[in-house]
Each structure stands twice: as C-alpha cells, then as structure tokens.
Write a structure and sequence with these properties.
Layout (H helix, E strand, L loop, with lengths): L17 E10 L6 H24 L4 E8 L22 H8 L8 H9 L3 E8 L6 E3 L10 E5 L8 H11 L13 H10 L19 H6 L10 H4 L3
Parallel strand pairs: 1-2, 1-3, 3-5
Antiparallel strand pairs: 4-5
Helix pairs in contact: 1-4
Bound molecules: zinc ion.
C-alpha cells in the first residue's frame, strides 16, 4: 500500500497553516430542520477551533474561513453520496464545487481565492442519512480539490472529533488504528504511545484528544521527522 503517504502537500488542502476555506454543504433527501443543521455547524466551528489551537501550539498561524450551502434553504443537488451502497465516490469535491458555482474543474483555485481570499480549501459534505464517512485526499497529482463526507442520523450523530479526523486526512494524516493501512501490531503500538491520538481513536472529549508527533509531521505542523514514524508509514 503506497496510497496515503504521497498525499502530503498534494491537493487543495496541503498543510495546516495559513487561511483555509472550508465549504460546507448540508445535503438531505428528506426535509431537514434548520435548528439541527445550525447545531451541526457549531460542531464544524468546534473542530476548526480545536485545529487552530493545536496549530498555535506548534507556532503556526491557522485560520479557517467558512462558506456554507444548504443551511437556510435546501441545497439542490441530484446526488447525496452514499458509501454503503458501493465504493466511495472519488470526485465529490469537484461535483459540489460545480454545484456551488465554480465554473470548471480547473478554475477552482481562482474561484476559491476570489470568494474567500484563501490559497487552500476543502469541501465538507454533511449528509442527513446513515452512512460511513470518508475522505478523498489527492494522492498523486499535485493539485485538485479535496473533500470529505460525513453522515448524520438519529442513531449516529455527527461529532466534532470525526470532523477533525477527516479534515486531517485531507492534509495528509493517515489512519493509526487497525485498517488496511496499519497492522494490528501497529495499532497496539499506537495504543501504548498515544491512546488518545485523533487518527488512532477519536472517541474522546476534545480536551483529551491529541495530535501525535507523527500526525503533526504529516500535516505540516512540524518538520521533526522521528525514526519511529517509519513503522507506521505505508511502504
Ligand atoms: Zn480515517
């Protein structure tokens, strides 16, 4: 597996520094109460503040600028991406940018700059249904819009730490729990070193969650590459 590592500094979300435009879309196939969307947007702000605070600890200035679609009125789009019914869609960011008024796939950096003044950006879709969230980092090309989707339902409410986890993927972070990226041994290793690391297990209060030196290095918060990182990096 060589897929995750090269996403460092690729795509529209390169590193956790400077000003980053987050374009959030609320999408639903059924009517969705505005109050609930407002509450969810508070989680987006919470996640962003947490990341801004962590960046500050590393001496970086980070600021998120927000654009929101579908909050006051339903956002008209013909697809609400679904993970459970098949493979994850890889071009969600492009589709949603276009629906938000971006003239073409290649015009997005200028369009982002004009709308927000930011050089970096990410698309964030909050879907009002059951599903398993995922991120679409850009692996190989140097540029292109990056996006992530998370689901919210009565049984599986969206929480701020899930937003943090997926956003970090777009900046180059890798999963540190047992997946096709990490072995069970590696997951156990991380559990000993940083049990509350956000890419390992994010189900902790925000005040307890941490970013390990490995994740900090992957997302550009630190230049300090420690020798133990190698064990966790996709070969
Ligand atoms: Zn993950």
């Amino acid at each position: 597996m060589k897929v995750y590592y090269p996403s460092i500094k690729n795509g529209s979300a390169k590193e956790l520094e400077g000003s980053i435009y987050v374009i959030t879309f609320f999408v639903s196939e059924t009517p969705w109460a505005m109050n609930e969307k407002m509450d969810l947007f508070k989680h987006v702000r919470e996640a962003e503040s947490w990341l801004e605070g962590k960046a500050k600890e590393y001496g970086k200035t980070l600021r998120f600028v927000n654009g929101v679609h579908g909050l006051f009125e339903p956002f008209e789009i013909d697809i609400v991406p679904d993970y459970n019914s098949g493979t994850p869609q890889t071009d969600i960011a492009k589709k949603y940018l276009k629906a938000a008024g971006c003239p073409s796939d290649t015009a997005y950096p200028e369009w982002i700059k004009k709308n927000s003044g930011c050089d970096q950006s990410l698309v964030f879709i909050i879907a009002n249904k059951e599903g398993r969230g995922y991120a679409n980092p850009i692996y190989w090309e140097s540029d292109g819009p990056e996006g992530t989707i998370l689901y919210h339902s009565e049984n599986n409410k969206l929480i701020a730490s899930s937003i943090i986890h997926e956003f970090l993927h777009l900046f180059g972070a890798i999963d540190l729990y047992e997946t096709d990226v990490q072995t069970a041994d590696n997951s156990a290793r991380m559990e000993k070193m940083y049990p509350k690391e956000v890419m390992h297990n994010h189900y902790f209060p925000l005040t307890e969650l941490v970013i390990s030196p490995l994740t900090a290095w992957l997302v550009g918060l630190s230049d300090n590459k420690e020798s133990w990182f190698e064990t966790f990096l996709p070969k």
